[in-house]
Amino acid sequence: MLQIHEITALRAQVADWKHQGLRVGFVPTMGNLHDGHFALLELAKSRCERVVSSIFVNPTQFGPNEDYARYPRTEQRDIDGLARNGCDVAFLPSADVMYPFGIKNYVQMHVPGITDILCGAHRPGHFNGVATVVARLFNMVQPDAAVFGRKDYQQLQVIRYMTREMSFPVEIIAAPTLREASGLAMSSRNQYLSDDERITALEVFRTLQFMRDACIAGISSDHIEQQAFERLEAKGFEVDYAEIRAEDLGRLARARGNARVALIAAKLGRTRLIDNLEFEIIS
Ligand code: PAF
What we know:
- 39% of the residues lie in helices and 20% in strands.
- The chain has 283 residues and is of the alpha/beta class.
């Protein structure tokens, strides 16, 4: 596996592959890799002949009171993991490569509407930071396809919207959420959980299943959301939201079709967990 730090070298390598008619996949990450990331890589490899993965802890997607400084940097372990899992190029840009004019006066992406709800309402500016860095990465890597996890459902929708709106010639591939046997969705943040919290955290997936079943049974979403909220609070969570939305994250009143998604974001101690469950209602 090659390790590349500069844009020129990266583009030359990707252009060379494309000249050979090889399809290039891309998996962006912020490092601290776990099996969930390696599953994204696996999916990219199954759809593309060559795969680039980036490691960059993006400062512009963290709010002032969030854990940017505390975010675990495990670069050597991550590079070894990428190499072991068949990545062809690890792209490791510095902050100067990513934001050459610094992060005070930088060009930003803003995806309207969808970035102000759910996690966007609780983490103002977060999705602008994500969209900004993903747009830069698409421009640097110039992949044919990029893989994002369904676990970050709202992020996936933001990136799909931006890719379409900006005519980026990149196919967005959505990867299923990888869960531990207990049902806990894999996440870098799980490592912050104590043993007791890990057990309590299972209530997130159980509550999503309750929301799905109640929605399919025809119970009103207001009632379900209220019950979900109370269930999580009773277990000690500080709940940001527990909502059922249309597939595109629009309100149910305006939903077209039968695809729905239940979404939860809730803090357990200092750890903010997010998860979601997609399902179909019977019309
Ligand atoms: O999902 C992530 O790890 C990040 O939000 C991403 C897409 C790599 C952008 O920094």
